[in-house]
UniProtKB/TrEMBL annotation, chain A:
It is an enzyme of class 2 (transferase). Keywords: Methyltransferase, S-adenosyl-L-methionine, Transferase. This is protein-glutamate O-methyltransferase. The keyword Methyltransferase applies. One of its GO terms (biological process) is methylation. It comes from Blastococcus xanthinilyticus. It catalyses: L-glutamyl-[protein] + S-adenosyl-L-methionine = [protein]-L-glutamate 5-O-methyl ester + S-adenosyl-L-homocysteine. Its EC number is 2.1.1.80. The lineage of its organism: Bacteria, Bacillati, Actinomycetota, Actinomycetes, Geodermatophilales. It comes from the Bacteria. Residues 1-273 form the CheR-type methyltransferase domain. The keyword S-adenosyl-L-methionine applies. InterPro entries: Bact_Chemotaxis_MeTrfase (IPR050903), CheR_C (IPR022642), CheR_MeTrfase (IPR000780), CheR_N (IPR022641), CheR_N_sf (IPR036804), SAM-dependent_MTases_sf (IPR029063). Gene3D superfamilies: Chemotaxis receptor methyltransferase CheR, N-terminal domain (1.10.155.10), Vaccinia Virus protein VP39 (3.40.50.150).
TrEMBL record, chain B:
It comes from the Bacteria. SUPFAM superfamilies: CheC-like. InterPro entries: CheC-like_sf, CheX-like_dom. This is Chemotaxis phosphatase CheX-like protein. Residues 60-132 form the Chemotaxis phosphatase CheX-like domain. The keyword Protein transport does not apply. It comes from Blastococcus xanthinilyticus. The keyword Magnesium does not apply. GO terms for biological process: chemotaxis.
Automatic annotation (TrEMBL), chain C:
PROSITE patterns: RESPONSE_REGULATORY. One of its GO terms (biological process) is phosphorelay signal transduction system. InterPro entries: Bact_response_regulator, CheY-like_superfamily, Sig_transdc_resp-reg_receiver. Residues 2-119 form the Response regulatory domain. Keywords: Phosphoprotein. The modification 4-aspartylphosphate is found at D52. It comes from Blastococcus xanthinilyticus. This is Two-component system chemotaxis response regulator CheY.
Length: 274, 180, 127
């Protein structure tokens, strides 16, 4: 063990402050195992030296790496499947009848993490449309450079594909790549991943027909939530559809949206004139 | 149609792969780490540190038979194998674990690790049922990829080792050949 | 709801049984496919069978085929739970009639995700 009690306490406090997750005493081995790859990557011999280095010369990038290594959990594919069911049952038919045959549908996965959400959308559309690759473009963005790179690579560990990806979809859209699974080139071509900070002015993108902005707003205070929703709305088509996380709503935050119930989920659409 | 495969062509142009050409220690460590997280417990980590194994050890393994043929072997102190079995069974662990309980649980871990190792190797391959006892002998020291780890402070090794002796030095005559 | 857990490893049967009983399932188990068929032949009708692949006596794929050949058991959902994880193996199992496929190792969360996909996650714990 290279980790002293003081270093462990520093890591605990950092993680608590940044993620509200509390590491119980006795988790020294966990910290050691998860942070060792970061230490090695930085050319340091052990985790103790890593903590010393980051403590004496703090950098947002290193801090984020440490917090992400200790807090990331695998994301599910279809676990909260209702917003995806709504896409194929209601949203897609509505868009296909409203748009011209040559108009490309633009979909935005606004916090794409390691890519499960944009590829879930891509798989559904590929199964629903004969010419999905030329008809649809999916923009995937995330704050984290590492997550954007992972999304671009389209590779998932065994544990990740076990999380709610239906086996028929796995065999149809993925191939084995060593110990990992790689999403098909066809789907990767549909997804365009780039870095984007939702809390800052957004790059020129869109206009989007559908936006998935799930489990992002919960991390921000009310004024930031309001400005994010406003900026997202500016990048959407007037008849577009916005999906939020199951615990999120525009109600009481921004009154320029209309809530539409689709099956067991809700979508939000820009109100005209607001 | 039937042809007699003497193996001569395969041996001269396409030598049998050794495990280190097919998988590395980091991959084995990550496979074992995933198995531990899901079978033993979410915070149960394997730290890649070498430690001396004691005298009283136990192994569990599965055989992989395919383009590469060998075994995926876990070896640790008998007491650690028991602790591992207990961790696996959690609240349903009996008060006193008998040999069969340990063989079953420790064997299942070898099965899970072996399944993932097999998937990372060129296929098609078949996986045997797990076995527990004294590990199969290393037949070819050049066909072994071994990872030493520490779990809850106790040393454990994961060895992916070929089952076949080294190939004879290629020779233009067929007299030195051994059957595969 | 009822589940039949088929695995030759007692440890694995206990792990899967633990996850399912926590969700409110009534569980019976079997050490290989043949024992699994005996349970079904008694008339005990599970909603779900979780099936290991490599087992002595009768393996998981043979069990799936046997269940598929009997229309009386058509209602039962079958999920392979196995360390066999190649693409071709998953295709074989689905072609034989398995509905889902869970690769070992898995976490309890991953198991619940699969049940949710199959519509077999009891509503009260569906979050």
């Amino acid at each position: 063990m290279s980790l002293t009690a003081t270093s462990f306490d520093w890591v605990r406090e950092l993680v608590r402050k940044e993620s509200a997750i509390v590491l119980q005493p006795g988790k020294e081995y966990l910290v050691e195992a998860r942070l060792l790859p970061i230490a090695r990557q930085m050319g340091l011999p052990d985790v103790g030296k890593l903590v010393d280095t980051v403590r004496t010369r703090p950098s947002a990038d290193d801090t984020r790496k440490i917090v992400e290594a200790l807090t990331t959990n695998e994301t599910s594919w279809f676990r909260d499947g209702d917003p995806f069911t709504a896409l194929t049952s209601t949203v897609l038919p509505a868009l296909l009848s409203a748009r011209g045959a040559n108009e490309r549908l633009q979909i935005w996965s606004a916090a794409c993490s390691s890519g499960q959400e944009p590829y879930t959308i891509a798989m559904l559309l590929d199964d629903a449309l004969p010419n999905a690759a030329s008809r649809v473009s999916i923009t995937a963005t995330d704050l984290s450079r590492e997550m954007v790179q992972r999304t671009r690579a389209g590779r998932f560990s065994q544990l990740e594909v076990n999380r709610g990806l239906p086996a028929p979809m796995l065999v149809r859209h993925f191939t084995r790549a060593g110990t990992e699974w790689e999403v098909s080139a066809n789907l990767r071509r549909m997804v365009n991943a780039t870095e984007c900070n939702l809390a800052a002015p957004l790059p020129r993108m869109g206009p989007f027909d559908v936006v998935y902005l799930r489990n992002v707003l919960i991390y921000f205070d009310l004024p930031t939530k309001q400005s994010i929703l406003r900026r997202v709305r500016d990048l959407m088509r007037p008849d577009g559809w916005l999906f939020l996380g199951a615990a999120e709503t525009t109600l009481g935050v921004d009154d320029s949206w209309e809530r539409v119930v689709i099956g067991r989920s809700s979508a939000y659409r820009p109100l005209k004139g607001k | 149609m039937s042809t007699i495969d003497t193996g001569a062509r395969r041996r001269t142009t396409d030598p049998r792969p050794v495990i280190t050409d097919l998988i590395d220690g980091d991959t084995i460590l990550s496979i074992a780490g995933d198995a531990w997280i899901s079978l033993v417990g979410e915070d149960e980590v394997l730290v890649p540190l070498p430690g001396p194994l004691p005298g009283d050890i136990l192994s569990s393994w599965v055989d992989v038979v395919g383009p590469w043929t060998g075994s995926v072997v876990l070896t640790t102190a008998r007491a650690t194998a028991e602790e591992l079995s207990r961790a696996l069974l959690r609240e349903s662990a009996p008060e006193v674990l008998d040999d069969e309980d340990v063989a079953d649980a420790f064997g299942e871990i070898a099965n899970v690790v072996g399944g993932s190792v097999k998937a990372a190797l060129p296929g098609p391959s078949a996986l045997s049922l797990p076995q527990v006892g004294n590990a199969p002998l290393v037949r070819n020291p050049g066909d072994v990829c071994r990872v030493d780890v520490v779990w809850r402070g106790e040393p454990l090794t994961i060895s992916v080792q070929g089952a076949l002796p080294p190939l004879p030095v290629p020779s233009p005559t067929r007299e030195n050949e051994v059957s595969l | 709801m009822r589940a039949l857990v088929i695995d030759d490893s007692r440890a694995m049967r206990r792990i899967v049984t633990g996850i399912l009983t926590d969700l409110g399932y009534e569980v019976r188990d079997a050490g290989h496919g043949g024992e699994g068929l005996e349970v079904l032949n008694e008339g005990w009708a599970p909603d779900l069978a979780t099936i290991d692949w490599n087992m002595p006596v009768m393996d998981g794929l043979q069990f799936v085929s046997a269940v598929r050949s009997n229309p009386a058991w058509r209602r039962m959902t079958m999920m392979m739970v196995t360390s066999e994880s190649e693409h071709t193996q998953i295709v074989r199992a689905l072609a034989a009639g398995a509905h889902e496929y869970m690769i070992k190792p898995f976490t309890a969360d991953a198991f619940r995700d699969k049940l949710a996909l199959l519509g077999l996650l009891p509503q009260e714990v569906a979050l």
